Hints:
Elements: E1 3-11, H1 16-33, E2 37-44, E3 51-58, H2 61-69, H3 71-80, E4 84-93
Antiparallel strand pairs: 1-3, 1-4, 2-3
Amino acid sequence: xxxxxxxxxxxxxxxxxxxxxxxVDNARASRDTEAGCRQFDVCRDPADPCLFFLYERYxxxxxxxxxxxxxxxxxMNTRTAAWVDTKTVWRYRxxxx
Length: 97
């Protein structure tokens, strides 16, 4: 059964453009290079440019753990850590379709 991650970031205003570049690069690398990554959407609130929303789907928990261990994720996470005001992660198990 597939795993779904929903992640919400609130980014410090002075870093939103840099964060957008980093998270888009991370999502692209995840989709392009991780066999277990099925979807990685990056969204931004049009009314609040500091609020980002991710929707990620993976084959299973092992694929999630593999994602978290990748060089591109580790690089993005390190580069952006000081830019993040809040980060909330929800984990779901996909049941349909």
